[in-house]
Amino acid sequence: MEKVVIIGTGCAGLTAAIYTARSNLSPLVLTGTMPGGLLTTTSIVENFPGFPEGVDGYELMLRMQQQAEKFGARIKVLQTVESVDLSQRPFKIMVDGELVETQTLIIATGAGHRHIGLKSEHLLEKKGVTYCATCDGAWPMFRNQPLVVVGGGDSACEEATYLTRFASEVYLVHRRDTLRASKIMAARALTHPKIKPIWNSVVADIHDVQKDKVTGVTLRDVNTGVETLLPCAGVFVAIGHVPNTHIFKGMLAMNGDGYILPQNGTETSIPGVFVAGDCSDHVYRQAITAAGMGCSAAIDADRYLAGLNQ
Ligand code: NAP
Fold first, then answer.
1. What is the pTM of this model?
2. Count of domains in the chain?
3. Which domain holds residue 272?
4. Which of 1, 146, 227, 290 matches a 20 to 30 Å C-alpha distance to 173?
């Protein structure tokens, strides 16, 4: 019987692991398929306090993991939760065919990349369509070629700026005429000579499925409906995220987009189940706010366990 199981090892999960480990709760931490979470796919994180020169996202997560393990967290790498039963106590979790029982659960499953939803997008994924410039941008097929980035947030601006290292030009396709990105990231992208914004437009199709590689996109002007063809060698989709909460659907209170709704700090609708990070936060979604919420969830779980033992 576990005292605390933490699902997820992004900033929220690993901070919860550090705090519960330091409380001698010996947490069992399940990484899922992406140890370290989405931050491991970013380049330099410039806004995490304590790193005036910035810190590599992968290194930051590795250090958090080492810190958690130093205090006794047991991190099970690449173990995926298949199902959970929160209807009875102890809570039951099926992990890679093994049953784990726990008194408390901290859900820190994060969020995944949102897809445009095109059939061609799906068929050309990893064949020129990607969701991570820092992971895939250096591929030879993108060198000195025109590339398309879709989105208007910080991610899109960051990806577009990063891709200027490799591309002949980067088209930033946004569905409105104003970027959502922070002023500093927007300015960095829009003043770059290789980045060309295409406003009020969406990607209506990606070519060429027959050739099994990206050769261009069909753009649709959202105001006029006019469609144009834009040749490119790659499409980088950066249109936000969807919470990884499907295994908890119907068990916990969520909003319409699937974000788990926290109450009284990090409590969920089931006592003993706590939530932290991007799977519940659709407003701030920062590494530091996820870490802060992970800390809160650990303290809430510790206090809940203390209450059980009184
Ligand atoms: P985001 O802020 O939610 O922006 C998503 C963008 O995609 C928006 O411009 C949105 O358009 C557009 N979009 C959404 N659905 C679309 C669709 N179906 N078709 C076309 N466009 C669509 O997401 P994000 O850029 O990934 O950023 C998430 C959070 O991470 C933010 O808080 C951001 O500040 C943070 N972040 C920080 C850094 C950094 O500081 N280094 C880097 C990356 C991200 P609308 O604007 O019209 O809604």
1. 0.78
2. 2
3. 2-112+241-308
4. 290
